TrEMBL record:
Protein name, as recorded: Uncharacterized protein
GO cellular component terms, semicolon-separated: cytoplasm
SMART domains: SPEC
Signal peptide coordinates: none
Domain of life: Eukaryota
SUPFAM superfamilies membership: Spectrin repeat
Pfam families for the chain: Spectrin (PF00435)
Amino acid sequence: LADAEANGANLCEVLNDQASKNDIQSKIASVGKQYSNLRKKLDHKKAEIENLLRDGRQFQESCSKIIGWLSDELSALSDKLSVSANKDVLQQQLDNYEPIYRNISIHEHEVIMLLNKGREMLTKKPEKQLQREMDKIQQNWEKLKREVVDRHTRLQTCMEHCKKYYTNQDRFMPWL
């Protein structure tokens, strides 16, 4: 653009006809405006691409973080599957399990939002790697959720049975 403006100025100095000078100056001004508009569009697209790239990286980091967290929770949960019949031990198991249960419930929204964003990205541009990650997250999440709810239900049910047992025992022992 600078070269075109310089050449246009040189041409205007050489020309004697005012109409030709005005025509060249208006054409150079038009090229300048077009260049400016093109530069704005280019800057806008560049910012848009940078935002998409940043969002993609953040999404990938979130996927990796969630996959790691799900794996950690699943492995930690597998260590705590036994349920005691002893009331004190059962109460301790229930007390130790409640924070885990709440933690899973707290992360549910985050996992669902990540899965929804992944599905949205897949509708725009299907990618096998992204599809595999979404499937892995979905499968691990469903497995974790199922195991957490199952364990919570078993602990609660066992505690109810244990309380009934000790209540009946306390009523029956004096009778004996």
